[in-house]
Amino acid sequence: MWEQAKSLLRALLELIHNTITCGFISSDFAWGLSIIILTLLVRAAMHPLTQKQMVSMQKMQKLQPMLKVLQDKYGDDKDALNRETMALYKENKVNPASGCLPLIIQLPIFILLYGVLYDLTKRADFTDVTFLGVNLGGSVLTTVANALNLVDEAGVRIPDEQLGFVMVFFSSFTNLSLLFSNIGMWIFNFILLILIAWLTWYQQHLSSAGNPQMAMMSWFMPLFLTFICFSLPGGVLLYWGISSLMGIVHQVRVSRKTSEEMKTKPTLYQEKPRKSK
What torsion do the CA atoms of 36, 38, 42, 47 make, to the nearest 10 degrees? Predict the structure, then answer.
């Protein structure tokens, strides 16, 4: 069933590509546009679930100060705390579980799309396909390795699957002149990688605003994902970047709307209750 779903999504991507190339767009450039269009279609199809998830997350974030007040007031009475917490959720039309279910449904779809793009970038006829300078079939590691012409002791080119971050990193420092003389081979993939890292940081920053416990994640996740993205093909990075950009735009719109809806606090929780002596 999983392979059938991948085949269906792959057929849709190829249909988009074939439709675009019927015009005056080159086949290579059309692959990049096809990935962008497919990403837009997937995001549009998932919009209702994403909207529900983001609204729930934003409302939960806005309710944190009020939940802290309840914890201070009813910390010693768990039943009362649970009762008042549920009343607060009901008053603000928040379902804590509603933010999790859409994410569970979305995750397999995004993994499926990633698998289709990853398989596509491994095709022999896709190796040198570029879009706005980005090598869609090559990763930052492979494009830098190609620029450095990395070979083994026998003078044979090192296979992509054997390239490691440490190997490419140190080879770059020992061959800086060669690296920058062939800068066009890797710089656009690297710029896309940096852009994705910034988009990830900004998205985490929006999610963790006003939540000190989540502040560390806004720095850890971009660094972690940047390390992972070093070995991902440019086609996958293009999908990831466009999807992240759309996610940020959506999140900002939801945040503004939710803030307007929740400006008026419930009368019961406007002031922090005094602790009994």
Answer: 50
Looking at 183-229, list the stretches that DSSP marks H as alpha helix, in order from N- to C-terminal side.
Answer: 187-207, 212-215, 217-229
Could you give the C-alpha distances from 99 to 55, 56, 133, 223, 225, in angstroms and in order? 8, 5, 38, 25, 23
Contacts of 111 (CB under 8 A, 6+ apart): none
Q: Is 1 helix (H, G, I), strand (E, B) or coil?
A: coil
Whether 254 contacts 55, CB under 8 Å: yes
DSSP string, 77-129: -HHHHHHHHHHHHHHTT--GGGGTHHHHHHHHHHHHHHHHHHHHHTSGGGTT-
Q: Which residues pair with 185 in a beta bridge?
A: none
Residue 54: burial class (beta carbons within 10 Å; 0-12, 13-18, 19+)? buried
CA dihedral sign, ordered 21, 25, 28, 33: negative
- Phi, psi torsion values for 130, nearest 5 degrees: -125, 155
Question: Encoding tokens for residue 171?
Answer: 């080879």
Going from the C-alpha of 53 to that of each of 104, 243, 272, the distances in angstroms are 10, 16, 29
pLDDT in tens, the chain (277 residues): 778 888 888 888 889 988 888 767 788 888 999 999 988 988 888 888 777 777 777 777 777 777 777 777 776 777 777 787 788 777 777 766 655 555 666 677 778 877 888 788 777 777 788 999 999 888 898 888 888 888 777 777 777 777 788 888 888 888 888 888 889 989 999 999 999 989 888 887 776 655 555 556 667 777 888 888 888 888 889 988 998 898 888 888 877 776 665 555 544 444 444 444 4
Sequence-distant (6+) residues with CB within 8 A of 120 are 10, 13, 126, 235
Which pTM value belongs to this model?
Answer: 0.77
